[in-house]
Amino acid sequence: MSKYLTLGKFSFGMGDRFSHQGKAQLRACVLATELGADVVPVWNKSNREHQFIGTEPSSLRVEADAAVKALGWKKPYHVDADHIRLETVDRFIAPSDFFTIDVADSIGKPADPRNVKAFIARHPELAGKIVIPPIARPFETTRVDVERIAGKYLLAVQDAGKIYRRIAQVKGESSFITEVSMDETDSPQTPPELLIILAALADEKIPVQTIAPKFTGRFNKGVDYVGDVRQFEREFNEDLAVIAFAIRRYGLPVTLKLSIHSGSDKFSIYAPIRRALKKFDAGLHLKTAGTTWLEEVIGLAEAGGDGLALAKEIYSDALDHLDELCAPYATVIDIDLKKLPAKKTVSGWTSGQFVSALRHDLKNKAYNSSFRQLIHVGFKIAAKKGARFLGALMRHETVIAKNVTENLFERHMKPLLLGK
Prior knowledge:
Oligomer: single chain
Order of helices and strands: EHEHHEEHEEHEHEHEHEHHHHHHHHH
Shape: globular
Radius of gyration: 21 Å
Largest sheet: 8 strands, parallel, barrel
Strand content: 5-15%
Distance between the termini: 38 Å
Number of helices: 17
């Protein structure tokens, strides 16, 4: 396996679509570190988000560097080219040192039968009874099972190899971190499938340090996990065992860990995740993405006056463009149209009413997950308002920054890493 830039044990992917909350996000990492949780900040932004907002990948590097300088952060930090593919990677190479290689679109596309046959020949150990401590029951896979799984995932892994080698050719192998993402697909990967995927990644000589599978259950944007928490915990533990086994068996980086996409606000699974990480002494990469944008809207509403008026306008416009906004995120949102309040209703809300509906507080009866999800995917509305929206962010920076920091630290880092 080639040399590579090493990623710390616990890392947080922090999306900041409008490039104004870098310091507030980093402040949460400072607070966590002061309490003993050594958090590595990773600022991430996808090609799709850059296109929607009208920004360039270099802007994220500028923001991250400025935040680090302002707060005197002396520990590692990274800039992630999020969900890149071969056709989009080039403009991210210079400013980024973390690359989330997204090959979900290639899953299920048939690999060359000769390559599948060669993979099976290289890995006879994957057929039969596979004992992976501490999983109680051994995996039992037949040659037919391995052929079917390899046929489903091998082309995706090969595509990941092409993207990795493109980055390495330009940037050098030792100057970046590689994540492989397979989460944006229809069905979750089982632990035996994950093992076969990791063996294939090792064959491609990709020094993968984070792997983002699709987990059981729904990971909708900005809201809590939907599914069987006990089943998730069992599979998450098995995935950690598979990763530890694959590191030893296939020579993958010792820093390899799970990455949870759309990981923000999944409060019901944070305790099971924390228990599993402790049990295996494992690391984690959690992508929080759009939760910061939601805190910007909450901050505007909390500020009152023109901030509240703008927040209401964003919701009103989002209602007008609901289908357009929701279409790109159809697999990761569940909006009940009957629960979306009417424009007229929202226009009469106080700051407290708007914030109560939007803030992810399950104890608050006014919290509305459908309202929150629509605002979540409605960032394009704010982008179209241009200088008017950015000006509001600057005018109300104090209250917005407080919300951003508190959200990341109190609701995410503390429950996951500090057990509170």
